[in-house]
Amino acid sequence: MGAGASRAAGGAGAWEAVAFGDGAGGLARGARGAPGVLLLQEWWGVTPEIRRQGERLESAGFRVLIPDLYNGRVGVDAEEASHLMENLDWLKARNQLVAAARFLREEGSPKVGTLGFCMGGALSLVGAQASPDVSCAVAFYGTPGRELCQPETITKPVQGHFGELDAMEGFSDPAAAKALAAQLQQAGSGGEVFSYPGVGHAFMNVNPDAPEVREGVTASTGFPPRNEAVQALAAERVQEFLLRHLSAADN
Length: 251
Fold this sequence. Notes:
The protein is of the alpha/beta class. 33% of the residues lie in helices and 21% in strands. The longest helix is centred in the last third of the chain and has 19 residues, at 228-246. The radius of gyration is 16 Å and the shape is globular.
């Protein structure tokens, strides 16, 4: 165990509080020693939506760690979520991801991948570039600023997922998805980007147009409603990608 790391008793089947690095913390679940996934939050924070994604990953056999980048805070409307994201120390968040990936490796995960949504999608790529302990990355509807990450230099497998109706210009709209695809092709690391018709930003949420940001509290977004077929297809692609690149035999 690395310096400063701590973990609660328990294993698969429940969320546990963990601490890693220099005072950072988060939630983890799944068997220690299984392939690890850093699950990275939307701009709302660590919400029931994100925890549901973690439970799905655990059921597929992964050890999941959600770094709490807002230190327990959650935006209850778009204005508050935007304020939280705008005030995030992105360099500190990058260092937290590096420490979290190292924590999973020290726990026994043979390999670690990153998977994020919206803000977390951008940070998933940041983690892949910054951490030697990250083997692959999945980014949903989010791309990082060039001051944080240059995707054309990422030498690890990357998978991206975007909605064709996403209107977040320069971050996750069709032009941003196309730019990321070109950057990954330039990197030559086997990257792939999928664009889904009929869906917009946050399409993986149970209710993209009104996600649950706290237990029993939803926030209106104006995004297109749920498309279960698209969600199932994207989840299948993610699971296959992570199993392929995080197995101990994969090099």
